[in-house]
Write a structure and sequence with these properties.
single chain, 68 residues, mainly alpha, 1 helix
């Protein structure tokens, strides 16, 4: 009986170590996904913000070039 309890305690200790590793791994993945989301948002949103300014500048230049 005592031997079984010892084995169960050993298994619980091993499982706790594995769970700590899984938690650390999941936290790393969460941080990776967060940074991937931030980078994706910056890559998509920033050009969309500056696109109207670029288009208006392009149209002004095109207008002046065609008017001579």
């Amino acid at each position: 009986m005592e031997e079984k309890l010892s084995q169960i305690e050993k298994k619980l200790a091993e499982m706790e170590i594995k769970m700590d590793h899984v938690f650390a791994s999941s936290e790393k993945m969460r941080k990776y996904f967060l940074w991937a989301l931030i980078v994706t948002a910056v890559v998509i949103v920033v050009p969309l913000i500056f696109l109207p300014f670029a288009v208006s500048s392009l149209l002004q230049n095109l207008n002046t070039a065609l008017n001579f």
